[in-house]
Amino acid sequence: MDFYIFACQHRIPQEWRPPLTPDRIGGNSIRLIQLPCSAKLGTVFLLRPFEKGIDGVLVMACEEKACRSLEGSRRARARVREANAVLKEIGMGDGRILIKQESGNQQPDFIRALEELSARVSESGATQKGSITQ
Amino acid sequence: MIIAERKPIDEILSMIGEADSVLVAGCATCVADCMAGGEREVGILASALRIAAHRAGKNVQVIEATVERQCEREFIEQIRELVDQVDLVISTACGIGVQAMAERYRNKPIYPGVNTTFLGLRESENVWAERCAACGDCTLHITGGICPVARCSKSLLNGPCGGSHDGKCEISDDVACGWHLIVERLETLGQLDRLEVNIPPKNWATSRDGGPRKIVKEDVSDEERE
Q1: Domain assignments of chain A as residue spans, ordered by start
Q2: Which of A 44-63 lie inside 8 A of B, CB atoms?
Q3: What is A2-126's CATH number?
Q4: Average pLDDT per block of 10 residues along chain B, 226 residues long
Q5: Quick check: A134 and B51 CB within 8 A?
Q6: What is the ipTM of this complex?
């Protein structure tokens, strides 16, 4: 499957930081995007990858109480909820965008989260491939 | 401000029909503040339309633009080039903005992307509530700054009615009794005596009952421009 991962810089494993960002994790095609904080993530940024025909988006944010920008992780959660609602409205199921608000920056956290997202996406059905961005 | 809500995406898709190109045009004033049709919402709607059209096997070009105020021709003129490029425009401005666009671009279909709902304000982070009915005959000076027309479910001018209980309206426990609020406010202001004044029947001709309304201010007209 094809996934985008938006991750707070504090959650990206040291060995995956740019320019060492992997393009495959656990058999999935990945685009890992480092954010200064998950608060940077507007709702539209969560939707635009789906215009390229990807299957799902994973947001790796910090624990809400540990967010260094105070409200960043909380705002990211609200935007994930909004973007999921839009996807549901257009018939793509509820849950193609998964947010994990945890501490730590270990690879297994990403792998576990991707497995969970893959399972959710499989329930929702495959995405039509091919970029449609105009 | 004017409060609106985005229309369901299915309804917007049905307006788009077989069009090949669409401009989603936002307004950065009232509808941006109520999170229905500003630049942020235009981006979300445009993205949703692209994804939905693609899923339906259609190839629709969706472009985006947001102007400062769609109710003023100086601002909507700025997007003429984009309007000319597309088959139709989905305007996420209020009904005024949609009509201003339609008057400006007479040969282009301009369709509403939002339902214009009421005049109100934000009560909390995600709640907007009605405050003004634009009735054209304001009585706020008599009613403690709380509008009986917009906030009483029956628009009573001398309330409350028998349906008021514990500060709530009989239509729903989620709706405050407008007249309860008025009494509370007048009490705070030390103006309870105002309740002894009977407000006479309203001249609804100043409201919608008088047909489409218009204001002409002769004193600010510029004869040289006419």
Answers
A1: 2-126
A2: 44, 47-48, 50-51, 53
A3: 3.40.50
A4: 97 96 98 97 98 90 98 96 98 98 98 98 95 95 96 96 96 97 97 92 90 92 74
A5: no
A6: 0.90
